[in-house]
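User: Second chain of the day. Same drill as before.
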Amino acid sequence: MLIRRLNERKEITALDDTKVREILNPLHDDNHLHLGYSLAHAVLKPGQSSLPHRFKEASEVYCITKGQGIMYIDDDSAEVGVGDTIYIPPMGTQYIENSGAETLEFLCIVYPSWQPDAEELVE
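Assistant: Same format as last time:
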């Protein structure tokens, strides 16, 4: 049985400037996970937003677990909050803004699994 505790995962600053803890990634995990996707937990403080970026070939799903924000994908935007799930297609230019008074937290599922050269910043 594999159990990952979020508070035991190393926090990093991702390419898009969010604070992220990678939970599961078969490409970086020595437990030989049989997964086609990766799972991470991301955090943005009030007033912060991630940097515009896109995945070259991967799709991504955000599941909002705390707070509220505004999600931007290409030319679309929408308010999002707890319980909302957002699909981001490959090559979709995306960023999320914390528009609330509390920390915005969300799970990130990337398929195929996230790897460092899979995404790029967009100006």
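The mean pLDDT is 94.

User: Great, on to the next one.
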